[in-house]
Amino acid sequence: xxxxxxxxxxxxxxxxYVLLLAYFAHQLEEHLHDRFRLFVNEVVGGGLEALTPRAxxxxxVGLVWIGYLAVLxxxxxxxxxxxxxxxxxxxxxGASHVAFALVRRRANPGVWTSAALFLPAGAWAxxxxxxxSGLGPCGHVLGLAIAALAHLGIVGWVRWRRARLSPxxxxxx
Length: 173
Prior knowledge:
This protein is mainly α.
């Protein structure tokens, strides 16, 4: 297993690695007992299965685990500015959870790790990757664009699926 913080890693590499660890804690809060998927289906889906187990797995394994690992490798071997992708994705996700809770006046699965881990760790990663980036403003545009498109894509897919499901029927399990 990789050490939590290797003495040979740069600050951007360490910060992206910490974001991945924070995501594991966040996913535990969200997905223990299938809480997040059921919450989305209740609140956004109106009781319909707008977010399926398969989509949940693709999002979390594909976008998060594999995506963040690719960002970590890019941060280490291409440019530290690529870590801004993970920093912005974490900040967007964390801010979304907190904003949703404030607007709805209701906790949601993931809000506590968002407030306690995502916002501070995301800010640290943003700062360390920004300082070391050779990409300049392009690194910020790239990171924010990928983070926003990923989150908007998920929301759009859930809304599309809900609209596709007829109000009188339930989706297959």
